[in-house]
UniProtKB/TrEMBL annotation:
Span of domain Response regulatory: 4-125
Signal peptide boundaries: none
Every HTH luxR-type domain range: 145-215
Protein name: Response regulator transcription factor
Organism placement in taxonomy: Bacteria, Bacillati, Actinomycetota, Actinomycetes, Kitasatosporales
Residue(s) carrying 4-aspartylphosphate: D54
Organism: Streptomyces thermolineatus
Keywords attached to this entry: DNA-binding, Phosphoprotein, Transcription, Transcription regulation
Family matches, as SMART domains: HTH_LUXR, REC
Length: 215
């Protein structure tokens, strides 16, 4: 299903690249902007289905893009937000989690997006309500809370990382070459060890895991 996507990126080259990729895969880009103020105006004008934004951009070249996304999310709690950043900042991921709600949230690192099709799949997934986090961002969050994670086996850590990327249990089984029943068992064990309630909706269980690791 075609999406209306508003990308915000202050580099003209990268911005044009995003436009080209999104339109090549059948999505619409009613506006592409280079600063936080223009992002807010464009989303309000075009009723976009998802925001794809960098963190650092004008006017202050700090976290303007993220703050604009948060302001838009307050206006439209169902607005999906995918952050595409060059930086690994735990505070940025924490801000994303603070957006809450049932709508999609994503945080990907530019330098680690090596597959254009998978990036577009991530955009569609977040727009549909999924949570997609780069594994390196997840690892940064994991380091903040060592105690509960010490309960996990190495295999459970692998499963947790794939969960945070937005994989379903069936997809995790394919990635790890195990049965789906084995993955179901690992997921249940992870959530029990982290004192989390089992939830069958993939993005909610990821949010629960990441929120737990933040606190």
């Amino acid at each position: 299903m075609p999406l209306n996507v508003v990308p915000a990126e202050d580099s003209p080259l990268l911005r044009d690249g995003l436009i080209g990729v999104l339109t090549r895969f059948g999505h619409r880009v009613p506006a592409a902007v280079g600063d936080a103020g223009a992002l807010v105006a464009a989303v309000r004008e075009h009723s976009s289905d998802i925001v794809v934004t960098d963190v650092r951009m004008p006017p202050d070249n700090s976290d303007d893009g993220l703050r604009a996304a948060i302001a838009l999310r307050r206006e439209r709690p169902a607005l999906p937000v995918l952050v595409l950043s060059q930086y690994i900042e735990q505070s940025y991921a924490a801000h994303l989690l603070d957006l809450g709600g049932d709508s999609g949230i994503g945080y990907l690192l530019k330098d680690r997006v090596g597959d254009v099709a998978r990036f577009v799949d991530a955009v569609a997934g977040v727009a549909a309500g999924a949570t997609v986090m780069d594994p390196e961002v997840v690892r940064q969050l994991l380091r903040r809370r060592h105690d509960p994670l010490q309960r996990l086996t190495p295999r459970e850590r692998e499963v947790l990382s794939l969960m945070a990327e937005g994989h379903s249990n069936a997809s995790i089984a394919r990635e790890l070459f195990v049965t789906e029943a084995a993955v179901n068992k690992h997921v249940g064990s992870i959530l029990r060890k982290l004192d989390l309630h089992v939830d069958g909706r993939g993005h909610r269980r990821v949010l629960a895991v990441l929120a737990h690791l933040r606190t």
